[in-house]
Amino acid sequence: MPDDLTPLSRRQILRSVASATALAALTPLSAIAESQSGMTSGPSGASGDPEPLASLGDFEKAARAVMTPIAREYVTGGAGDEHTLAWNQSAYSEIKLRSRIMVDVSRIDTSVRLFGRELPYPIVLSPTAYHKLVHPEGEIATVRGAAAAHATMVVSSFATVKIEDVARAAAGSPLWFQLYVQPDRGFTRALVERAVASGCQALCVTVDTPVLGARNRETRVAFKLPDGVTRANLEGLTGVDATASHRPPEGAIYSAVLEPRLTWKDVEWLRGFAKVPVLLKGVMDADDARKAVDAGASGLIVSNHGARNLDTVPATVTALPRVVDAVAGRVPIIVDGGIRRGTDVLKALALGATAVGIGRPYLYGLAVDGSNGVSRVMQILRTELEMAMALTGRTSVRDIDRTVLWS
């Protein structure tokens, strides 16, 4: 896989779409790898000026065409009738920005500090599961793309590559680890200790998923992991097949790899041995935000699980100001869900977020062009943020507040 960030053209994508789509349901991972390798190696007889994939929306369209049906429905789907899925994006479009003129914006500083470390820009790769569904190298390709883009990646408990191997591929690039607390607390502790020993600098505990939501798309496509793909970090968990679906049996709501008994006491337990900042992911309610800080959380992630759990909860950007006001600056706040433009990042920062996370967009980049696609997606979003800051007269992230918004 080449390491340059040259964007693919729509013509390159479309030349492979017909065969890739027709064979997607029957194609083994090895053949997908061949298809993606050929697709990303450069123009093959294309004529005329290429049309580059210029936006995150372009990557999504291209990715939908090359992913297998199982991968496409898993990645793109939300819960129920997908109202929240739509609101996550549309809510950003309803927030208007206030442009400013005659400000010296010859230097733009997008850096932020989180937990004592400086990030070059306030965008992280939120945790997403099963990267080998969309690329044969899985999380290895993702972390290489993140490293090339100087971005922090949050590795999922449900990764298809072991955390130790992801950390080696990161080659020093910052990593965090997302934790699904398991019913087996001994296994959970060992997993956290593995992540910290591998160099993960923070622990993001998912707290909004005692059970899954009504994921109809996964049901319709009969979701299962392809042969050879496992939840690598959960191998060895007693009574759980690492190759089995995360979904509960038909007619049930409880999954063997999710913990419905998680309580505030578990935050204290995790803080007792984690040795890194512990963030709670999935906080949407102001009362819960206050309880989380009181319980010792080092940070909060405002998230509705990519709209994959409880349909008709608000968009994350709608919930963000309430959480920000409740926390009152005591801990950093990250928000994810629905971010597709640099203007979205600016709006989230204006509403009080310390940083933002993206999930689906970098998976689309991974599907289209492996590590290069991941880097390109991050590059686009960072550049768009710089543009938006300049056009609103803000030269530093520290200068961004609610006066950026049109009121």
Description of the structure:
This protein is of the alpha/beta class. The protein has a single domain, classed as Aldolase class I (TIM Barrel, Alpha-Beta Barrel), CATH 3.20.20.70. The protein has helices at about 10-25, 30-40, 55-65, 70-75, 85-95, 140-150, 165-170, 185-195, 215-220, 265-270, 285-295, 315-325, 340-350, 360-390; strands spanning about 110-115, 115-120, 125, 155, 175-180, 205, 280, 300, 335, 355-360. The strands form two sheets. It has an eight-stranded parallel sheet with strand order 3-10-9-8-7-6-5-4. The protein has a two-stranded antiparallel sheet with strand order 1-2. The longest helix is centred in the last third of the chain and has 32 residues, at about 360-390. The radius of gyration is 20 Å and the shape is globular.
Q: What is the overall silhouette?
A: globular
- CATH fold type: TIM Barrel
Ends: how far apart? 47 Å
| Poorly predicted regions | 1-7, 14-47
Mean pLDDT: 90
Give a short account of the largest sheet.
8 strands, parallel
Give me the strand/helix succession: HHHHHEEEHEHEHEHHEHEHEHEH
- The H-level CATH homologous superfamily, spelled out, is Aldolase class I
Number of helices: 14
- CATH top level? Alpha Beta
CATH architecture label: Alpha-Beta Barrel
* Cα-based radius of gyration, to the nearest Å: 20 Å
Structural domains: how many: 1
Helix content: 25-40%
DSSP strand content: 5-15%
Number of strands: 10
Strands side by side in the biggest sheet: 3-10-9-8-7-6-5-4
Overall SS class: alpha/beta
